[in-house]
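REVIEWER CHECKLIST
Item 1: Sequence provided? yes
Item 2: Single chain? yes
Item 3: Sequence as submitted:
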Amino acid sequence: MRRKLIQAIAATTLACALPAAHAQKPVELDFYYPVAVGGPVTKLIDQMAADFEKENPGIKVKPIYAGTYQESIVKALTAHKSGKPPHLAVLLSTDMFTLIDEDAIVPIDELAGADGKAWLGGFYEAFMMNSRTGGKTWGVPFQRSTIVLYWNKELFKEAGLDPEKGPRNWDEMVDFARKLTRTDASGNVTQWGVKIPSSGFPYWLFQGLTTPNGAILMNEAGNQTFYDRPEVIEALQYWVDLSAKHKVMPGGVIEWGTTPKDFFERKAAMIWTTTGNLTNIRANAGFPFGVAMLPEKKRRGSPTGGGNFYVFKDTSPEEKAASMKFIRWATSPQRAAQWSIATGYVAVSPAAWDTPEMKKYAQEVPQALVARDQLEFSVAELSTHENQRVTKALNDGLQAALTGAKQPEQAMKDAQREADRILRAYRR
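Item 4: Structure as written out by the authors:
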């Protein structure tokens, strides 16, 4: 009788324990990440997920490497439409309107909790410009950047230029680039003064010219562009003239992906690229280099760039809460500092720059401070409804002008006409 009583108690205890054990099953998160963003970051993301899981045993994070940013947004939306979206993803900050229009994401404000406003207020305002619309916050800054100018100090010295000073304005950049351009006995250029890439993200590099010229390319509502304004056309004319008139930059399309390599191989004395390439350039340059804010015309300035965290709508409350926990953890000051040091992206909050690790890094690598300091003058990256189509209209116009197929004014008027056609429905 005693044995049967013990067995009955044990069975009851086990039965009661099963629901509890089931309730403690880890929440599993599919995390889409764009692997092709520059540099070997998959190991860093894998380690980040492992470190988070150690501190949060009730949550499992599964990184899914989805290709380029463009491929990642397509895959994320395809998964969303199939009813199996990722739980969270890093996608371009400029994908915000597209994700909203597809009803794919939820506002961060609804998930951030009682201290959410204060927490979101801790990020740099320049990064939040591409994270908010309609009074709501939709993305959390993670791997963010600005465009900066890199120069080879040895080549500056050889050209009789001060190796410690980059060009301050548009005129100086042309003057420096002339002195830095080299040709062989046959008249072939062996070293270009400057390279500004025009593939991959031409619209973004173009904003590095329009912003200093006092132009903004779109409104905050994302339903109007200003491609054909005089200051925009003037900026494009300057870009075209670097090759067509001044002969200090190659004509035609300059590849985004090979520009750092050209810098390493001394085929270009100055280049424009993302601050996210800083770690890559530090590792591979093989010579002393400088980093400067973009040259000014009427003002200083660069667009911000890079990716935000987004939380997808068609997931459970528990999964959304777990996603937010990971996002808060990944963007905490210490983690943001570690990510910046490892990749070259800009640490996304002032608090991250106040950590001991970041202070030490800034002393050792003062070039990292340039992108941070440029945030004071930065503007939102081009982002609208139907963003890929509207951006393509501009990219097509830019490449038409840079290849000589159209004059800058005509190229920008055509681009604006196409953008107006696409966005007309969003202005009703």
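Item 5: Key structural point noted by reviewer: Confidence is low (pLDDT under 50) at residues 1-22.
Item 6: Recommendation: ____
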